[in-house]
Design brief:
By secondary structure, the protein is of the alpha+beta class. The chain has four helices and nine strands. The strands form three sheets. Strands 1-2-3-5-4 form a five-stranded antiparallel beta sheet, covered by helices on one side. A hairpin with a 3-residue loop joins strand 4 and strand 5. It holds the Pfam family Pkinase. Keywords: ATP-binding, Kinase, Nucleotide-binding, Serine/threonine-protein kinase, Transferase. Belongs to the protein kinase superfamily. InterPro entries: Kinase-like_dom_sf (IPR011009), Prot_kinase_dom (IPR000719), Protein_kinase_ATP_BS (IPR017441), Ser/Thr_kinase_AS (IPR008271).
């Protein structure tokens, strides 16, 4: 008979929600540390369990390796849900900051984009493609104006094994942010000069 382990976290307010999951604030009971906990309904994910296994594999590969990529601290399951515990980013989404500010000065935007590109380079160097980068998946660590920006939500990401490098042809992501090349299923090759980053 399986051993029942008491839950080590207590969940609080809801931070966001998606098709299969909700994200809640959670406190680790023993340490008192706060996390963001993605609570995935196993019944709603039935037949798509591979997506969660893939997300965990991706996060294990990139966690704690870059200051601008969220870290997966813990994951576990109960009879009804899967739980993924991440860094708690309290500064909100880039999308909301853009809306609140109304605009970004070019130098501020350039600094932000450069930081994001460096994090994306780290992700790519780790053999991962994110496939859903958008302002809603870029979170600020704190409310501070100069807060670190973090790449989050690796639900659509893929591990690209070096020996099996191939072109990705699956249409996925958020339609409003997709490049026309994705809809056309044509190749888009982009290279940046080393000085760019």
């Amino acid at each position: 008979m399986p051993v029942t382990v008491p839950c080590q976290y207590r969940t609080g307010k809801t931070l966001g929600s998606g098709t299969y999951a909700i994200v809640k604030e959670a406190i680790h009971i023993q340490s008192g540390k706060y996390y963001a906990c993605k609570v995935i309904n196993k019944r709603l994910m039935e037949g798509r369990e591979h997506m969660v296994r893939n997300e965990i594999a991706v996060l294990k590969r990139v966690s704690s390796g870059h200051p601008n990529v969220v870290t997966l601290h813990d994951y576990f399951e109960t009879a009804h849900n899967l739980y993924l515990c991440f860094d708690l980013c309290t500064g909100g989404e880039l999308f909301d900051r853009i809306c609140a500010k109304g605009n970004y000065y070019e130098s501020d935007a350039a600094t932000l984009v450069r930081t994001i590109f460096k994090a994306v380079k780290y992700i790519h160097d780790s053999g991962i493609v994110h496939r859903d980068l958008k302002p809603e998946n870029l979170l600020f660590r704190t409310q501070a104006e100069e807060s670190d920006i973090m790449i989050a939500d690796f639900g659509l990401s893929r591990v690209m094994e070096e020996e099996k490098l191939s072109q990705l042809t699956e249409i996925c992501g958020t339609p409003g942010y997709m490049a026309p090349e994705i809809f056309k299923k044509s190749t888009l090759l982009v290279s940046f000069p080393p000085s760019f980053l």
